[in-house]
Amino acid sequence: MGSTDGSRLTLLCAIGPFALEQERALPREHGIDVLIAKNSGGGAVAAKLAAARQRRIPVVMLEQPRLPGADREMIDVSDLAAAVRGRIPD
Questions:
Q1: Low-confidence residues in the chain, pLDDT < 70
Q2: Maximum distance among all Cα pairs of the chain, rounded to whole angstroms
Q3: Are 19 and 50 in contact (CB under 8 A)?
Q4: Domain assignment present for 47
Q5: Domain assignment of residue 13, yes or no
Q6: pTM of the entire predicted model
Q7: Which of 1, 12, 42, 89 registers the highest number of CB atoms within 10 A of its CB?
Q8: 54-57: long-range contacts, CB 8 A cutoff, minimum separation 24
């Protein structure tokens, strides 16, 4: 989706992961000179970073927000069910 206000910002939204050749094509097709991507914590961004590196395009990675710690953690579903039952009045 391109900008209508004359700025050089173009927002591309797509769900990957994509192959390296697809990631290489995006900068060529859209004139990308800076890449801003979220750090999703997986390997899905590897091809995107490799393509940017090959074209020497600067990358800005957005970190996921740090969430506060939980006061309780459950590993077993039955433990979770018991904890929920104890909080819901009859």
A1: 1-7, 88-90
A2: 63
A3: no
A4: yes
A5: no
A6: 0.59
A7: 12
A8: 54/24, 55/24, 55/27, 57/27, 57/32, 57/33
